[in-house]
Amino acid sequence: MEDDIYLLDNLIRSIVRKYEMIESKNRAFRHLTALTITEIKTIYAIGDEEPKTMKEIARALDVSVSTPTTTINRLIDKDYVNRFTGVEDRRQVLVELTKEGRKILKEIRRIKIETTEFVLRMLDEGEINSLKKILQKVDANLHV
Questions:
Q1: What stretches of 15-120 adopt beta strand conformation (E)?
Q2: Inter-CA distances, 126 with 8, 12, 113, 115, 130, Å
């Protein structure tokens, strides 16, 4: 049993690492080469819904609240992000994507879809359905 756990642990970590490498290589031949992986992850974490607090961005990136500040500053300089003070709570710093930032987010999402489609091509429909059920069950039962 311990051997199975060790094997599964290694497989999960290997798959995640390879998946991220595939995404990284996909972006290499696009106009996203001007962005670092950290900047890409930050744009994705900000999203295009409502403005995010630095705390929300940090939580999405699984880092401390102070960590995204430098990345946000670089993204402001590149005109992908706006930072402003909250209206209701002036102590709150909010971040949102600019028009250019939303264009980049759309490209990031497209690359993520391409990467997932590439991986899923290895599986038949039944395997995809089984994988989906397994991942949904694991996700629903992991409480972090």
A1: 52-53, 81-85, 93-97
A2: 21, 20, 20, 20, 6
Q: Please, is 83 exposed, middle or buried when counting C-beta atoms within 10 Å of its C-beta (0-12, 13-18, 19+)?
A: middle
| Angstrom distance (rounded) from CA 86 to CA 97 | 15
**CATH numbers and ranges of domains, the chain:** 2-141 (1.10.10.10)
From first to last of the 144 residues of the chain, give the pLDDT tens digit: 788 899 999 999 999 998 888 877 766 556 677 888 889 999 999 999 999 999 999 999 999 988 899 999 999 999 999 999 877 777 888 999 999 999 999 988 988 898 899 889 999 999 999 999 999 999 999 987
What does the block give as tokens for 88?
């209701």
Global confidence as pTM: 0.80
Two structure tokens written together for 40: 């890409």
| Nearest Cα to Cα of residue 69 among 54, 79, 82 | 54
Rounded Cα–Cα distance for residues 18 and 83 (Å): 34
